[in-house]
């Protein structure tokens, strides 16, 4: 049960963060994600309070309505979540450059850790 609670609280936090950044009401977001207008506000409210965690398909629809990657809504690390949003805005060619740079940074960090003097 703790894992589900952690996931729902992360989802709740990210959903509200993205909705507020998009200047949408709970009702507007729900309707944009395909939820019936009469229950849209209440359902988004329950998701944002962490009372319910939507199934993946609804998470994908909410992400599309918010113009964020679906993975953003489930990412626990704040910095990585911000990187996901920033990377999603890039063109495919710039994403490749970002990935290459990230891999270079990762390799150089790993090699510094493995050096005998850096234990």
UniProtKB/TrEMBL annotation:
Residue spans crossing the bilayer: none
Pfam families: HTH_31
GO MF annotation list: DNA binding
Domain HTH cro/C1-type intervals: 15-73
PROSITE patterns to which the protein is assigned, alphabetical: HTH_CROC1 (PS50943)
Cited InterPro entries: Cro/C1-type_HTH (IPR001387), Lambda_DNA-bd_dom_sf (IPR010982)
SMART domains hit by this protein: HTH_XRE (SM00530)
CDD domains attached to this UniProt entry: HTH_XRE
Protein name per its UniProtKB record: Transcriptional regulator, XRE family
């Amino acid at each position: 049960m703790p894992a589900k609670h952690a996931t729902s609280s992360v989802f709740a936090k990210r959903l509200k963060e993205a909705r507020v950044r998009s200047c949408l009401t709970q009702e507007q977001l729900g309707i944009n994600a395909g939820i019936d207008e009469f229950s849209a506000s209440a359902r988004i409210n329950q998701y944002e309070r962490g009372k319910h965690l939507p199934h993946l398909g609804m998470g994908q629809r909410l992400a599309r309505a918010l113009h964020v990657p679906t993975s953003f809504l489930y990412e626990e690390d704040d910095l990585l979540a911000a990187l996901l949003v920033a990377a999603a805005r890039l063109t495919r060619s710039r994403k490749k450059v970002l990935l290459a740079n990230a891999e270079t940074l990762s390799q150089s960090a790993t090699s510094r850790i493995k050096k005998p003097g850096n234990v």
